[in-house]
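Quick look at the format.
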Amino acid sequence: MTPLPDFMLEPLVRAGLLEDFGCGGDLTTDALAAPGQILHTALVARQDGVVAGLSLARLAFTLIDPAVRFTVERPDGSTVAPGTCIARVVGAAPAILGGERVALNFLSHLSGIATATAGIVRAVAGTRARVCCTRKTLPGMRAIQKYAVRAGGGSNHRFRLDDAILIKDNHIALAGGSVRAALDAARARAGHLVSIELEVDTLDQLAEALQAGGADVFLLDNMTPAQLRDAVAMVAGRALTEASGGITPDTAAAIAATGVDILSLGWLTHTVRALDIGLDYDSRGM
């Protein structure tokens, strides 16, 4: 994995540290740490998963004290088991203990996304389908949450409203309820590099869209596997097909087997179970 550059991550980590340190700093560590005391610690997985977010974890320590040594043992995208050392962190006690919670919050959250994504990717292995996230991300955290999806082997949908045209049910209503009118208006406005995706809820809508000249991508919303197979046959390779709505680890394989190109899942980023990771004293450095 190519990590995101620090200049993109620093504002998020600084905000986390400012929130945690408040106006008075780390009262506990300031009271207990001896002057110049150095800690040898390790970020350790407590459960099976996939790692994501190490750059943010590193910054949580080095923005407090640039002298902290952060050595990655299992880079982003790696699979880990309980007890696996993900990274070793050595430095002054105020930096290690002051940055601990912010580092773990980012690392556990993003590793949870990567782990969930990897589970769906495994479920659809052997099919043509790619696993994709959506824009259902926490405000301000879209770039890192989508990065975590990539770390888990998934792909990203558009990042922003200006990435592509995506015509959904409310847009069709805005165009007077006509799929053709919505597509015509989109084509008139789109630049030559802008893709057009159309959401359809029924096979009749899909037929209308195909008769109106089609789109680059069809988002097949909340369709059954039987309907998805029919939709893929109707499109016949003239556009990408994307299944969305109600996709779970239990249903992903059957949906992918219909021949759709993409499975998009909003819950990969909006309903996240953090991966359990801890910061432990490192016996190697003791």
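Next, a different chain entirely:
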Amino acid sequence: MKKIYVASSWRNVYQQIVVKLLRSHGHEVYDFMNPPSRSGFAWSSIDPNWENWTTEEYKAALEHPLAIAGFDSDFDAMKWADTCVMVLPCGRSANTEAGWMKGAGKEVFVFQPSEQEPELMYKIYDGILSSYDELAQQFRQTSEV
């Protein structure tokens, strides 16, 4: 059984399906949308006008208790996990999370169920999976080792 961090975007329609599939194979999975003992972090919880912030307002918001709690929850889960599945399409946070996890010596897989712009640096990761069947096969094999 693996401890898996699923990195993705709040707007990604595949994220919840991936969480369920990995759990169905017996893995422990951190779901940033539904973290244990709290709700998922959203900038709009700090300020409904967050999309219009200046850089200074953004920097100040990083020190808000909700931002600190959200960061701590996700970063603690990144440290806890031994594997990351980055579900495309995603944004800067998921790429930062996957990069940190690979740099920390953890396994990282990219799940790309639909066509995306190619990214050369994804070559540093342990694999690019392109279908639910391929994802299930990868984690079925690793769960039996």
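The longest strand covers residues 3-7.

See the schema section for token definitions.
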